[in-house]
Amino acid sequence: GLAQWQIGPCPHCQSLDPAFTFEPVSGRGKVRTWTVIRPSFLSGLTAPFVLVDVQLDDQPHVRMIGQLLDGPDAPLGLGDSVTVAFDDIAPGVSVPAFKLDTGA
Questions:
Q1: Distance separating alpha carbons of residues 62 and 30, to the nearest angstrom
Q2: Average per-residue pLDDT in the chain?
Q3: What is the chain's alpha carbon radius of gyration, rounded to the nearest angstrom?
Q4: CA–CA separation, 36 and 50 (whole Å)
């Protein structure tokens, strides 16, 4: 038979799909849903905090979950516009998070 070989996974996301490509996105999206976390079980995050489920504007099939940096008392609603921000949760560790887009 034919010898088969496999290219290793993407070093960033571990995808094995040979058609995988990186595509830049604007970081803008819409809030699909959210939850308020009261007791903190994650180091680097102070309770209470809000996790939002965001549908990206550039790629509507892509959804991300991240902390809403505006805080638990922010006026938040379904479909609200957000933009990505990076939260430094530890030295050398940044994670995607979101801020409400006020249009300013």
A1: 11
A2: 82
A3: 17
A4: 4
Residue 90's pLDDT is what?
A: 85
Instruction: Please indicate whether residue 48 or residue 104 has the higher confidence score (pLDDT).
Output: 48
Nearest alpha-carbon partner for 57 in 81, 35, 29: 29
Q: To the nearest 10°, report the CA torsion of 82, 46, 41, 86.
A: 40
Distance, CA of 23 to CA of 73 (rounded, Å): 34
pLDDT digits (tens, 9 = 90+) for 64-92: 999 999 989 999 999 999 999 988 888 88
Beta-strand ranges (E) seen in the chain are 28-37, 49-56, 63-68, 81-90, 93-100
Q: Tokens representing 101?
A: 């887009």
